[in-house]
Amino acid sequence: MSGYCILVFATTKMENTGSSPRPKFIADQNVGKLAKWLRMMGYDTTVFEGEDDSRLVRIAMNEDRVILTRDTHIMRRRVAKNGLLKIILISSDEPELQVKQVVQAFKLDCQFQAFTLCLECNQPLQAKSKQQVKDLVPPYVFQTQSQYVECPACHRIYWRGTHWAAMTRKLERVLKETNQENDSRTS
């Protein structure tokens, strides 16, 4: 991945070890698809829809979130320059390359809590019995699936069907490529 640039400003170590808390993120609207990928991997990631960078910075600092953005102007802010704010300037337009960049920057454990957050609203999913979702899922899904989870906020229901399998394969491929790239850098 030539031309792959990571810029991180932080006062704390960016590595995710077993003893350190899992990072929380706030994604600028210009990297919204990245937010869904991170949620898929189980990382608390909100999406900032506004235009006011000052508000984005305030939320990130108040909630101890890392800003993910393609906006170079945020990098010029004093809180970024002096290390009070954690920011990753995302270098690619491609969501898969964005995921690789964040995984590498934080050494994220991508299998730790996969598929535990709502992809739409970032809320922790709650297990539901088959009977609880009987009238809420298509008949074929009800007949063929046995495990369900629901978002308590938006009430979206998830199950391990073909879409889940496709997302899992895609995520595994991206992570495998990321690990191979990391291995080639260290050898």
Explained architecture:
The radius of gyration is 18 Å and the shape is globular. It has a 5-stranded mixed beta sheet with strand order 1-5-4-2-3, sandwiched between helices. The chain has a 3-stranded antiparallel beta sheet with strand order 6-7-8, with no helix packed on it. The chain has helices at 32-40, 53-62, 78-81, 95-106, 139-144, 162-186, and strands at 8-9, 24-28, 45-48, 65-69, 87-89, 126-128, 148-150, 157-159. The protein is an alpha/beta fold and 187 residues long. It is 35% helix and 15% strand. It has a domain at 8-114: 3-Layer(aba) Sandwich (Rossmann fold). The protein is built from 6 helices and 8 strands.
- From the 3D structure, determine the CATH topology of the domain at 8-114: Rossmann fold
Residue-averaged pLDDT: 85
Q: Between the first and last Cα atoms, what is the distance in angstroms? A: 16 Å
- Beta-strand content bin: 5-15%
Total number of strands:
8
Output the structural class: alpha/beta
User: For the CA atoms, what is the radius of gyration?
Assistant: 18 Å
